[in-house]
Amino acid sequence: MKLDKPMRDGMIRFFIRLAAVSLLATIAHDLLLHRLPFLRGSGHMVGGALHFAIMLLFSAPIVLVHIRHMRESREKEREAYERLKGSETLYKRLVETMSDAVLIHADGVVVYANPATFRMVGADREEQLLGCPVLDFVPDSFAESIRERMHRLYRGETLPATELQYVRLDGSCQDMHLADTPIEWKGRPAGIAVVRNVTDRNRTRQAYERIQSQLSNLIDNVDVGLWSVDQVENRVLFASSAVERLYGTPVEQLVAQRGKWLEFIHPDDVDRVLAVQPELEKGRTVRHQYRLVAGDTGDIRHVEDRTIPVLDECGRVTRLDGVIIDITDRVEFERKLERAAYRDELTGLWNRRAFHDRLQDEIREAERLGRKLAVVYMDLDKFKKINDSLGHYAGDRFLREATDRLTVALGDKDVAARMGGDEFTAVLREAEDRGAIVETLERMRRLFREPYKLDGYDFYVGVSMGVSIYPDDSEDGTNLLNYADSALLFAKKTRGGYRFFEKTMSLSAVEGVILETDLRKALEQGEFELHYQPQYEVRGAGKLVGAEALIRWNHPQLGQIPPAKFIPLAEETGLIEPIGEWVIREVCLRLNEWKAKGWALPIAANLSVSQFRSGTLVDRIRGILDETGADPGLLELEITESMAMDAGQAYTVLHELSRLGVQISIDDFGTGYSSMAYLNKFPIHRLKIDRSFIDGIDRNGDNAAIVSAIATLGHHLNMNIVAEGVETREQVELLNRIGCDVAQGYYFSKPLPLDRFEALAGKAAWDK
Q1: Contact 761/601 with Cβ under 8 angstroms?
Q2: Where is the GGDEF domain (predicted)?
Q3: What is the CATH number of the domain that holds 728?
């Protein structure tokens, strides 16, 4: 019988102890015989019995201890066996339930495989896998490396994990991650391999890398710069090539030296850029514009930068991501638009439209600072004589010279404008006392009185000025301008003088009260009527394609009052909303009448700011459409650019109107600050180019270029282009070449009463 090592060791210890006991028994036997002589004579039997008894006495405890020890060893061995058996069961269960394939191979043949291995290779019977060569499941391209790997495993080498391919029974190749280690299998060198199918992972990674490559290529080839900055480590994480082009410096330098970024910002804009930092630290996204000075060329570029803070779980800003766009071309285009719409072409000063806006800005600033303003209305004496005697060319030179003198007299701190002809206006900021105002007025008088050299002659021209004071005379810009104009009339009587406004100079306040009272009655008494200005097709047959509805007030005593006089009053008194609702209802009723006649002519109606911001506009329009049964597709509502720029409200209102089927147009386009990209967010169907661009379009190349640019961009955004204020055949022909779709103006027809428009509506074309 073959004994295991623990039993063998126990038996050896037992016999050693037994030998020791025997020796001790012998010694004890001899001592007893020596000490007890009477035992000697008892013979060998007594001596032997005594020796056995002594030996039994010594060995009994040892035997008992050994038996107990053997019993405990057997129990421990049984427990160890049970634990080993449990561990083996556990490990077997783990291996059997693993999603990764586990297989054992010896001599290059599969000797064990868990269920995942069968699934991975597509086998459903043991004979398809067990006993098969490992190389049967490896593509030829990887066979040699697998063969070498198995040989090294059988030599007991530890190998690093690797990735290669395996072949399923259906012949398809799959990517796998292989980790294997040497073991012994039934006394033979073997290897155990853990295999994971990574085909999907690799495909995902390849798709990601492909997308990354495409995205990187896209980023590198668009004019939108992307950047990212680590706020914690104060370093640039990423900057696209467009950023490099804008800064005129290699990206590597920008990444290496974040602090140098400020050096590329225009000195006048650095404070503005730094001013947004507190907002970023609060986690707020910031969009701002500034100028960059390119490091390689020194060129100045206008950019729009959108910076997005990225917060950690504690709400701290850890990273800034940004998008930077070169808007230089857009800024230049908007400047041209602004100059054409807000600048006087001859003198370069603000024009009448712009002056009204600037005056309102100045009033708001004065109110904030608690200071006074002076509004000055000027008229050049004897200008008509220069025009009549020397001609318009000399008159234009004179006006430019007068403008230069006005600019010198005012300096940079005050606002000046040409209102038309020889009339100028100014806003004086230093107006806390009348003495400071008079000092400026006297300076202007002296400069204007100096001789003007025109065609070899000296001309002496004076200036008359009227002055009104904010807030002493009024807090309203229009009233201040009217009061200054009234004071000017009195100043002109003295030629070369100036007068401050006094209440007795103007009856406009009284007239305003009377008009307001009558305006409240006008709607109830049916004093309003609509005139219709025809709109014609510019290209093609030149057909009548629509009309714009314009309100007129037939006052019983004063006759017809122009809209320019009563519309501001209606806005001021809050009557504009019921008046505007009346206009839309009348238009819808007219659409129904015309539809019955077979005329599918759309009608445009203007929306006021008050209507647009009322919060009830959409419901009111819906109610009128339901009430009248009008076709919403023939109703066109016109808004101004400034109304559209109120992004939050405009987006909601315009999209709700569009869902009703109503057409939307931007009126007087080009006079505000909207961009085509911004308008693209709204459902705009038409752009109506302001008449200031059409006037002189056949003589002014800049105006023609601007109109052409607007038409091109508008068509690109699927918008119809309408030209307002067309007055000559030459303008029509040029608009046709430019690509305008529709035109209206006095060349075709002035606004007509309903009966005259309907008489015209049957015509299919106008005489080209």
Answers
A1: yes
A2: 371-503
A3: 3.20.20.450
Exposure of 669 by Cβ count < 10 A (0-12 exposed, 13-18 middle, 19+ buried)?
buried
Q: Is the pLDDT of residue 46 over 80?
A: no
In a domain, 765, yes or no: no
Domain that holds residue 560: 520-760
Give domain status of residue 536, yes or no. Answer: yes
CB 743 within 8 Å of CB 732:
yes
Do the Cβ atoms of 704 and 737 come closer than 8 Å? no
Task: Provide the sign of the torsion angle of the four alpha carbons 639, 355, 566, 553, taken in this order.
Answer: negative
Examine residue 206 and state whether it is found in any structural domain, yes or no: no
Other CB atoms within a 10 A radius of the CB of residue 56 amount to 12
Q: CB 570: neighbour CB atoms within 10 A?
A: 25
CA dist., res. 381 & res. 494, Å (int) = 11
CA angle 247, 335, 717 (to 5 degrees): 90
pTM, rounded to two decimals: 0.43
Q: Which tens digit of pLDDT belongs to each residue from 67-120?
A: 676 677 677 767 665 665 555 566 667 778 788 999 999 999 999 999 999 999
Residue 189's DSSP bridge partners are: 184
Q: Percentage of the chain with pLDDT > 70?
A: 83
Q: What are phi and psi of 513, to 5 degrees?
A: -65, -45
From 251-265, 410-424, 555-569, the region with the lowest mean pLDDT: 251-265
Do 181 and 238 belong to one domain?
A: no
Q: State the Cα–Cα distance between residues 344 and 354, nearest whole angstrom.
A: 9
In a domain, 513, yes or no: no
Give the contacts of 76 (CB within 8 A, at least 6 positions apart).
Answer: none
Do 115 and 197 sit in the same domain of this protein? yes
Sheet containing strand 109-113, strands side by side? 109-113, 101-106, 188-197, 173-185, 162-167
Q: What is the pLDDT of residue 227?
A: 84
CATH number at residue 106: 3.30.450.20
With CA atoms as reference, report the closest residue to 549 among 528, 568, 570, 566: 528
Q: What is the largest CA-CA distance in the chain?
A: 182
The string over 122-153, giving b where at least 16 C-beta atoms fall within 10 Å of a residue's C-beta and e elsewhere, is ebeeeeebbebebbebbeeebeeebeebbeeb
670 and 543, same domain (yes or no): yes
